[in-house]
Amino acid sequence: MENLSPELRAGFTRLDESTQEDWNIIMRHNERFSAALPDRILAHLDLLRGDYSGFPVTRYEHSLQTATMCHQAGKDEEYIVCALLHDIGDTLGCYNHADVAAALLKPFVSDENHWIIEHHAIFQGQYFFHHLGLDPKLREQFRGHPHFEACAEFCSFDQAAFDPGFDSMPVEAFEPMVRRLFSQPRNSIYLAAER
User: Fold this and answer.
1) Phi and psi dihedrals of 189, rounded to 5?
2) DSSP 8-state assignment for residue 68
3) What is the pLDDT of residues 64-87, one digit of tens each?
4) Which of 93, 112, 144, 159 could disulfide-pair with 100, CB 3.0 to 4.6 Å?
């Protein structure tokens, strides 16, 4: 992190004492920090590179395979980026990785794509929960939801992306998509402040 001189930092010690000048300083810095979000996301995705966790491929390769399959199926760019990042929460959310990925994506994606990522772990369970003593029909609680079938379709890509022989597209092919998607939020309480 950058070490700023005091004149480049806000001067308050409590939010209720902050001034417009303080917030002008903060917003200038926030603009640069927000612009670097794609770099931080791609760096975090890279943390999955060496992690097999017992799977046939690394979590990183699984992410690339899922995104590649979605690309090959003709899915749009937002969907493909969601596929690339759907398991990015694995490093910090060992027990709720889908929630972590969904929270990261929420300001930038459609309600449908957000719902898919938020629920994919439950829907994915139909393929393996019986091996863990869990209910493989857990997703049925959402039957009738407008995004149920879309999430089931997403999981058809996700569950098939563990093939060591699969020829994945390199992350560089997805990087411009990530940069475009995260360039402008569409759903955030802070949007009014940025306009």
Assistant:
1) -65, -15
2) H
3) 999 999 999 999 999 999 999 999
4) 93
